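Issue 218. Parser rejects a valid record. Input:
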Amino acid sequence: MDHSLQRGLAHTVPRWAVRAGLLAYPEAVAFMEERANAIAAARAPEMVWLVEHPPIYTAGTSADWADLIETRFPVYKTGRGGQFTYHGPGQRVVYVMLDLKRRTPDVRAFVRDLEEWLIRALAQFDVQGERRPDRVGIWISRDNGREDKIAAIGVRVRHWVTFHGVALNVTPDLSHFSGIVPCGVRGHGVTSLADLGIEVSMAEVDAALKSSFEEVFGPVHTLENTPANT
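Output the parser choked on:
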């Protein structure tokens, strides 16, 4: 490969791509694997890929199978960190494929940046998302003292390239979470923007995510309504 092209790709801003429709989970994983390898080899620019999935459960590398209460939907083992989670319509899943070698080669710092990104996006809807030192993800404190998770985080890093990412609950059917113990956390619930009384479209959420991402990670190049082979 031409070295000047390699240098050019290394400094290209990430592609911000919205994938219309419901995407089968195996197709998403196959695409991420291929794209992450291409980024590591300087054959493709970084990418932030926004998708929705049909109802599924995914099991991370730390999943306890006792946390699968009822197999209501297809279950996929996945290479991301974390435990069981749910994906489905009305949930914005964002797969973040960044090269940490040329950013900050620190996985913990990357996860904190993901948290900050989600907190800032939620703040645009006057929702106070919070971190918890003993729990991954973004949490909401309710008036009754309960804490509910509104966004999950699960990442994988290979050759310093990240993939998998975050899932923000916008308008999902929250009853679908009942088939698992979400992220292995008992004693707390899940919520969504709709459950909090925030009526927003997915396009509005995407706009908030994009502007907040740029605040935390830097500018992106927008590609709207992209096919899976972008």
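Fixed in the parser; the record now loads. The longest strand covers residues 147-158.
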